[in-house]
Specification:
Beta-Lactamase; flat; 6 domains; two-component regulatory system; Phyto_chromo_attachment; histidine kinase; alpha+beta; Sig_transdc_His_kin-like_C
Length: about 900
């Protein structure tokens, strides 16, 4: 037993020794004297010291200097306590490095020993320190990032869920205003849709996007940011949020833009100068100038208006409209009529101080799609065009951008140069060729009006103004009229001179007549020339106070003679070849004008005569056709009336015979039935032969039904008599003259005749007749003709309803609601002693073109063979001409038709 105990103790000691030596942790036994008493091999393996090194020195010498005080303090705690203490310190390795050790120490006071376990946590400590360092670096990076960058984090849909202070500061939105929004809240509208599409495609693919973006702050100011958007990827490599880091580059951008602006404005000024130096019409040069401005400046609209005096209306010269980076020239101010109103207000304002207007906010309402929206807020600038302290026009610009001082100064410079160019072009155009303008004006008037008076008036006025003479007039000699005349027909003169218009005496001024007849040019430069051989010329000059004169004959082919005469009454005038050439060209044009006017007058007279004759023939033909159609229709109606009257008469006689005998037949039948009843009472037991016959013929039924049969026959004959009476009343052959009639009775007679059509014509017509009769007096009229009108209108209404029903049945729309046809007849007595008859249907109606031709003879909408086109024409004549009333039709396609008849109660 003792041997076994010793054996077990020996095994236990071996196991303890093996555990102590094989443990990966550093196991040791130390004394309170500061030395290791026993250590396991892990110490040598981990620290590199030999066992003698470690046991031979106090263990505090191996502790890092920064950890010594803490280690001594922990050892003192062990000396005064029985509890296990845990702490960390660094131990020196043989190679000079340090290892972090995590200690777990338990004191054993009885032996003054400390049992301790140390674990190498150097790698863990290094990781913690690296992590701490990374955290510190990240905090520093975050601080630097927040201090200098705009940071936002969005979800996968772009909704902002984080915004730093810098973002709020630059955007001027609070964090609460930004969270939950997407970045459209700061979209300036500067970038295209393709720009943002490319951005989203890049980050949605998990790639980083970099670029510069112009955003808009809360106060509508703009700022530029250099942007990096990085997607945060989940485990499957797909983005689950986006981090946007932006750097404010507004100042740099503005500096770049300022540099670019200066370069661009320099080019703009150079190109505008080049355009203004070129030749061409005023509109073309100004349009080229505005095209250049719109290509360099961000404008929506730019215009130029000019005028010679402030009292004259503005004249649109050139304009450009830009939309979506596309610019087009405006043809006139009607392209944007609101601008002429604004321009007039600007002129009124500028006429006082001649000062430009810069960046005024204005609201423009556009209905013609010249702006991106129907109502836009734009910045408006205007620059006066001034020449020699006189306002000759304005240049206006509309833009969504503000013009800076540099651009403003350049535009003011451009406006001054444009004003000088306009003045130069005007002067050049005025001096270019007023003579050619005169010739063109005369030729234009000849082509356009052929008004000889206007042409001659223009000629003498323009020649006088152009040549600066005292008097210019047109002299006409007419030798072929019943009375030969010499006349000054048109004159332009100095207001200080007396007029010479009117006839001149042929006896006194025969020299002028001879000049015109010979068609030779007469040129007198001075009254002091030698006229010794021409005493009549000297007398002529003296009579009219002429000091110089130029006469050019007009060589026309009209048989009349004329001349343009220019004269001076104060001083000499040397008539140059240029003056003579101008007048010769003018007289050539006048000769053409006179010939054309003569031909025009003759052709016009012939045309008027032909037109008059054609109108007379057309009117005669129209009257003949109308009379013929009326005669035919009257003959048809007369024949129809005779036929109806004859049929009514032939039916009336046998019907009266039958109707008269039915009463007697009824009495006879009643007597026979009484006799039969009496026989049955007296002889209740008939013979077998009588009883058999009574049963066979059903004597009781015959007795009961015979009286009903006779009553039915009587009702039928009464109905036939009513129809015959209606036919006779409708035909009115015995009432060709006017008489007092009951209008309602005429309407009822017409409805009775048409009963077979409106009640049911086999296609399910069954028209409802709605009568709204008011109290009417007896009307003085032609009954037969009025019945004819009612018949025509009601027949057309029934035809229209029948056609509508047929179309509805043939329609492919099976769900279409069935038409309930009806005709409304309303009569009314009007205050002006007229009665009105309204006949309306709910058919398919008529178009405006059909209504306009409805009462024309031979016009019909019915198929060939179903209408003559005369019914409504004759009806119109009967109502309007015969009765002095009116017949109107109101209809809309799909809304039915209404005829309104008005006739006086008394005919004149």
């Amino acid at each position: 037993m003792q041997i076994q105990v010793q054996l077990n103790h020996h095994q236990s000691k071996e196991q303890y020794s093996r555990f102590f030596s094989l443990s990966l942790d550093l196991l040791c036994i130390a004394g309170f004297d500061g030395y290791f008493k026993e250590i396991n091999p892990a110490w040598t393996k981990i620290l590199g010291w030999s066992e003698q090194d470690l046991l031979g020195k106090p263990f505090i010498e191996f502790v890092h200097s920064e950890d010594k005080n803490n280690t001594i303090l922990e050892a003192q705690k062990l000396a005064m306590s029985f509890e296990t203490i845990r702490f960390e310190n660094r131990y020196l390795c043989r190679d000079g490095s340090y290892k972090w050790l995590s200690w777990s120490c338990t004191p054993f006071s009885e032996e003054n020993l400390i049992y301790a376990v140390a674990r190498d946590i150097t790698l863990q400590k290094e990781n913690e320190m690296a992590l701490q360092k990374n955290i510190q670096e990240l905090e520093a990076f975050k601080f630097a990032l927040n201090a200098h960058s705009l940071v936002a984090i969005t979800d996968i849909t772009g909704r902002i869920n984080y915004a730093n202070d810098k973002f709020c500061e630059i955007s001027q939105y609070s964090r609460e205003e930004l969270l939950g929004q997407d970045h459209r809240i700061i979209n300036s509208g500067y970038h295209s849709q393709e720009f943002f599409t490319n951005l989203w495609q890049t980050i949605a693919a998990g790639k980083i996007w970099r670029g510069e973006i112009r955003n808009k702050a809360k106060d509508n100011s703009f700022y530029w940011v250099d942007t990096l958007i990085a997607p945060m990827l989940n485990n499957d490599g797909k983005p689950h949020q986006y981090v946007a880091i932006r750097t404010d580059i507004t100042q740099r951008k503005f500096a770049d833009l300022a540099l670019f602006e200066r370069s661009r404005l320099s080019l703009l000024s150079a190109e505008v100068s080049l355009v203004l130096s070129q030749s061409g019409t005023l509109s073309d040069i100004l349009q080229s100038c505005l095209n250049t401005i719109s290509s360099y400046l961000d404008v929506d609209l730019v215009h130029i208006w000019t005028f010679e005096q402030q009292t004259q209306p503005l004249e649109f010269q050139a304009g450009v409209h830009c939309q979506d980076a596309n610019c087009r020239a405006l043809s006139n101010n009607q392209d944007f009529p609101n601008h002429i109103i604004i321009a007039n207000k600007i002129v009124e304002l500028m006429s006082h101080n001649y000062q430009p207007i810069l960046n005024e906010e204005v609201s423009i309402h556009s209905q013609d799609n010249l702006l991106d929206s129907t109502s836009a807020i734009l910045r408006f600038s205007a620059y006066p065009l001034i020449v020699e302290q006189q306002l000759i026009g304005i240049m206006t610009l509309f833009s969504q951008e503000l013009f800076n001082e540099t651009t403003h100064n350049l535009l003011n410079w451009i406006a001054n140069n444009i004003a000088v160019a306009i003045d130069r072009i005007w002067a050049r155009e005025e001096l270019l060729s007023r003579r050619e303008a005169l010739l063109l004006q005369l030729a234009s008037q000849i082509r356009s009006s052929l008004d000889l008076d206007t042409i001659l008036e223009t000629a003498v006025n323009e020649i006088r103004n152009l040549l600066q003479v005292d008097r210019c007039y047109f002299l006409q000699y007419s030798p072929d009229f019943p009375q030969t005349s010499l006349t000054i027909t048109h004159e332009s003169l100095n207001p200080k001179l007396p007029p010479m218009l009117g006839n001149l005496s042929l006896q006194k001024h025969d020299l002028l007549a001879e000049m015109l007849l010979t068609k030779e040019l007469v040129c007198i430069n001075s009254k002091h020339e030698d006229f010794s051989s021409q005493p009549r010329m000297q007398a002529l000059l003296s009579e009219f106070g002429i000091t110089a004169q130029l006469l050019l004959p007009v060589k026309s082919n009209s048989g009349e003679f004329g001349a343009i005469v220019c004269s001076h009454c104060d001083g000499d005038r040397i008539w140059s070849n240029s003056d003579i050439g101008l007048l010769q060209a003018v007289t050539d044009q006048l000769a053409i004008a006179i010939d054309h006017a003569q031909l025009y007058t003759q052709s016009r007279a012939a045309t008027l005569a032909a037109q008059t004759q054609a109108e007379q023939l057309t009117q005669a033909l129209h009257q003949l056709q109308q009379t013929q159609s009326q005669l035919i229709q009257h003959e048809k109606m007369s024949s129809l009336g005779q036929l109806v009257a004859g049929v009514a008469h032939e039916i009336n006689n046998p019907v009266n015979f039958i109707h008269g005998n039915i009463n007697y037949a009824s009495e006879y039948v009643e007597d026979l039935i009484k006799l039969l009843n009496l026989y049955q009472e007296q002889y209740p037991e008939p013979t077998s032969e009588i009883a058999e016959l009574a049963t066979e013929v059903d004597l009781d039924f015959i007795t009961d039904d015979l009286s009903k049969l006779l009553t039915s026959m009587k009702m039928g004959t009464n109905r036939i008599r009513e129809i015959v009476l209606s036919l006779r009343n409708f035909s009115r052959l015995d009432e060709a003259d006017k008489k007092l009639v009951d209008i309602h009775k005429g309407i009822e007679n017409t409805l009775l005749i048409l009963h077979h059509r409106w009640k049911n014509n086999g296609i399910g017509l069954n028209i409802s007749i709605i009568r709204e009769y008011n109290d009417l007096p007896l009307v003085d009229c032609y009954p037969g003709q009025l019945n004819q009108v009612l018949m025509n209108i009601l027949t057309n209404a029934i035809d229209a309803l029948e056609e509508s029903i047929i179309q509805a049945k043939n329609s492919a729309d099976n769900h279409k609601e069935a038409l309930q046809p009806l005709i409304l007849i309303r009569t009314e007595y009007l205050d002006n002693n007229f009665i009105s008859i309204k006949i309306a249907d709910n058919g398919s109606g008529m178009t405006e073109d059909v209504i306009n031709r409805l009462f024309d003879p031979f016009f019909t909408t019915k198929p060939i063979g179903k209408g003559t086109g005369l019914g409504l024409s004759i009806s119109y004549q009967i109502i309007v001409e015969k009765h002095g009333g009116s017949l109107e039709c109101v209809s809309k396609s799909g809304k039915g038709t209404e005829f309104l008849i008005k006739i006086p109660v008394r005919l004149n």
